[in-house]
Amino acid sequence: MTKPPRKGAAGRAGKPARAEPGAPKWRSPSALAVYGIALATLFLFRDVMLLGQAFLSPDATAPLGFVRVGEEALRHGIYPLWNPYIFCGMPSFASLAYNPFIYPPDLPVWLVTHVLPLPSTTWLVLYYFLAGLGAYLLCREWGAGVPAAVVAGVAFLSMPNLVAVGAHGHGSQLMDSAYIPWVLWLAARVFRRGRLSDVAWLALAIGFQLMRGHVQVCFYTWLALGLYLVVELAWGGADRPAPRVRAMRAAGVAAALGLGFALSAFLYLPVRDYAHLSIRGGGAGGGVGLDYATQWSFSPVEILTFFAPGAVGFGGPTYWGSMPFTDYPNYMGLGILLLAAVGAARMRRPRVVGFLLALSLFALLTSFGRNGFLYSLLYDHVPFFNKFRIPVMILVLLQLSVAVLAGFGLDAVLEARDGGAAAKRTRLALAVALGVGALVLLLGVAPDLWRGTLQSMAHASRPSLDAPTVDAALAGAAADAVRSGLLALLVLAAAWLCARRTLGAGLFLGAVLLFTAIDLWTVDQKLMQPVLGPAQAAAQANERDDVIDFLAQQSDSLAKLGDQLRILPASDQEFRNNRYAGFAIASLGGYHAAKPKLAQDYVDSMAYLRPFQVVAAGGPWQGDGFLNVSNTGYIVVPGLLPPAFPVELVHQGSQAVYRNPRALPRATLVGRAEVVPYDRQLARLTEPGYDPRAQVLLAEAPAGALGPAGGSVRITSYGLNTVAMETESPGPAILRFADLYDPDWTARVDGRDVPIWRADYCFRAVAVAAGRHRVEWKYESRALRLGLLLSGAALVAVGALFAAGVWRARGHPTGR
Hints:
The chain is built from 30 helices and 20 strands.
């Protein structure tokens, strides 16, 4: 139970203020707060909401290839579970690459954006508003006043971390981050009221967050929720519910978590099955590998970015921190950070402040990754933690904590106007904060005090940075220190004058909101401007060009002959591009953060580039077994290849297209099998003189004799989830299909189920007898079927909780 707010200044920090009798609800303080957060969101993203701009970062446009393939399938009544057009194929549903119609909030957003003339990025901006509104509600639930909660909400939605995540194409990460304050708010309501309806709402929030698909942010939310449960259970006191009541309510939160998992079971059971086949679960110990997981590790020196955003270079070429690169600093607004320190020092609500401080410390230590000790412990001992990477991502928990603590700091300043012993503590904290702000400003004005130290650190961290780039980084750091220090001093000076009753509360709150917006939005604009462009350019980046037109013609011609086409984009940029997939042109390459491990293995071995490397080094064209067996019939090159390459130039335009005459069809019949362990098959495929036409590599010898060689295969239909072929051979043979192996594929020969072998390291094969046969391949996820049953049962359970809550409320109107 929370204490009722006392009168006076502290009363401003109580539960939602009530409108005057007879006043319309739309004019209530809470409604005005919502309007304010909405207007702040609209102004921050005015370029995309009002000026026709869109975010055009590579990560924003990369998924369009998946979307185009999926939308085409949906138009034909096929739900896309598999995408055969990148990496020789990969799951699109189980990899979370494309999951249409599974996220319930998408429907109302789709309806609104198609009825009203709203920009295409409205959905993204909506989640910034929801992030701010969630932080506002969380502050109110924990006792902050309306104005303080508004400032906290605006600060959280404006955090450069969140802004950069959305602007640079990580929409699912942003959307799931917006759920974090909502999940904590609903959990706090369960502990305060113990209502079944709150348990049901919490289950829905957890389930929806999971369905949106960014598992790592969801996992961090559960860690925060788990820590909150511990604090609520352990924290006693005369004003707290009895231990039995706290345990019952903790059980309610745990039940909501379980129901949330069950609601999303139809998605996450397939994801779990695929995880061990992807680069996220195929490494040592079933994870991504600690070195890979910790590439984007925060570092103690980068804590300086909490005080000045450009302290270690502002992204791009000037960044010299410990991560490979970054587009943004983890700046939270120096004024907000120092107000958070005031709120923590005042500790008006010790239980909540203790939780937020513990959460902040946990997030900071975890974010250090390879630069600290905690991440490796979690990686080794916490289930599923080894599937994640980018430790710095967890700082979103710190940023939310700082925003909420800043709201408490604002209320502490308002409370200090009434005097008393608590006011002295607040004023002391303000004096210390003023000193920190003044120090940051001084260091910005006098950069010679620290220039040599940071210059040495920058050169030690990035020896490749030239002197002008380092100078530019240090100059930017000094300028940022001046700006952030000055704005923080203005915020804290207003707080000091307000606490001394020299400045009115309204002017103080207005000044804090204004200076915070200037501080954070200045940084946000620097993050957004490089990736803003005309909305139509997002589609143009994935539109047809002369190469697409040429390849589409070749693909149509081959399909009429019962074959398929696959290409190798030879440049690194094109190899990691999904745009070809959008036109049903299969590529050896592509981009996805959870690509199949089999595909990553051939990328890492560079088996597909081995012939080019040999010729480039002056040797003969050799070792092209993988290129040929993978049905790579066309090679797309930015320029022209030397005459020594035995490939045929067939198109020259924006890029050159060469035909590889040695490439095998997508499906072939082979009369001989060579038994080679999986871990040696890629090397065998690239050995000089190896001819995949004559044989197939298997890990075990097939039963029965094979041969004689010969026969034909015709692909009669080729879809995302199903493929049909007709074969004819003079004797028993192995049908090799150069699409990626996955255990969820099934095969039937003449209507009879047959086992599928993994062949030539990463492809599929089945045995066929002599004569003519029809072979049908089908992608069927057993985990999906089970998940649908579990999700349906969970939905019924959540509905029952809502019904029980209504029934109890009728019998117990207070809900206590």
